[in-house]
Give the backbone structure.
Amino acid sequence: MKNLSKSVKRVAGLVVALMLASSFAAASPAQAAGTRTLTVHLHRSHLSAAHPAGMQEDPNDLYEGVNLWMWDYGSGVPSNPSFDQTDDYGVYAQWDITGATKAKGGIITRLGSGWSYKEDVSTAAGSGGDRFININATGDTEVWLVQGEEKIYTYNPFTTRFVNIHYSRTDGDYTGWNVYTWFTDPASTVDFSSSDCYGKVATMMVPDSVTDPTIGYLVRKSTSANDFALQTIDLSASLPTVPTVADNASIAARTADIWLVDTTAVGGTQAVNGDGKIDYGTPATGARSALKVHYHRDGAYTGWNIWHWGGTQSGAESDFIGTDDFGKFACVEYPSDNPPLTTYSVLFRDSSDWNVAHKDIAASEANRGQDAGNREITLLSEGQTEVWIVQGKNYVYTTAPELEAPQKSLQSIKATATKLKKGKTAVLPAKSSRNLVIKWTSLTPSICSVASGKVKALKPGACKLSAIQRGSSTVQAVTARRSITITK
């Protein structure tokens, strides 16, 4: 299809649409007109230490005893279904959700029939193992779950490939611009949904059912009157090899990046193709742009910025413009020298005033012949150079490194009263030494009770209390036991 003219493609698309419409008019017995289904896939990679004793009769069966608890999907989905089908991903099940009226439905993956083994999602973040699926208002809903991950995927997270179209316009106006691709049937539109230091980015998700080594697409400007008001010629993208679930390939290994820049001024002289559309031709590829620098600190980023230099640039300052999972990032503009620069230098400092500024790296770390804090970055000859830098380390990473867990602070729980008369109450410490809320529980509820931050003496005996503070990203969790003698 990629070799057909766009006018032929659109006529073919209309024919396909009419054929599909006629086929839907007489729905097949397998799926009546208007029926909506929900398909849930689950992939597990290991047995859990939380398995109830004796449940795992077959140690090679990762899915034995695994079931679901679901709600808000309508009468077509039972509250406690099991997975009844298998595929290369793992297990899956499908239900009729035609009667579903809510936009979201809840789902819990658990082991056995109890509630103590919701091990597929960590409860540390307070989720309690609950996940929520966005239900499509029309059409089917299909999701993929991964053991231990709270995220719900709308695509196979192990075999889906990605093509990022990075698009830079010289006029800076991206209104109406999108990517039109025909590897799907029917053809589809992909919006430029994010930005980077180069311009706008559109991401095409390619399922493993696409086996061709390339996919076709074009970049176009759509208006209310014309979806193809302006457009490029047909372009193609080479795809990464189709992975399998067993490959456990990283996202980077499954991603292709294409860099396009439109150097044709709007309103200039363009060729007009057979269907009367202005054709922008093939965009330039490989144009270099700003350097994207990711930076991670264990502490606060307040006041920190980047000082950079190289070539005809004697020195300039750039602030961080965004936050991601790694830390902060900045777009650093470097000069378009001739010949082009091959390296560029950066350092990180906590003030714009050199008289008081501190660099993020000690002089003892300058073991590559550089001044303390200076990092030299090798620039790509084409496309955007992207690097990751960690506080205190001289190394420049070209992929995001795995971060070491920061050392957490300790905390403590204050002592309680040691004696209390029957019928009396005593206030329990509400917060730890790190000002985090404590949860108190009575281990002897017939002797003492806990409510509203107080312990109440019910009858003489030994009152046993348990306290827990679960910690935070910077503070270790702490537990404590307290004993109070209850007297008459």
Remarks:
- The two ends are 90 Å apart (CA to CA).
- Residues 419-487 form a domain with the Immunoglobulin-like fold (CATH 2.60.40.1080).
- The helical segments are 6-25.
- The longest strand covers residues 478-487.
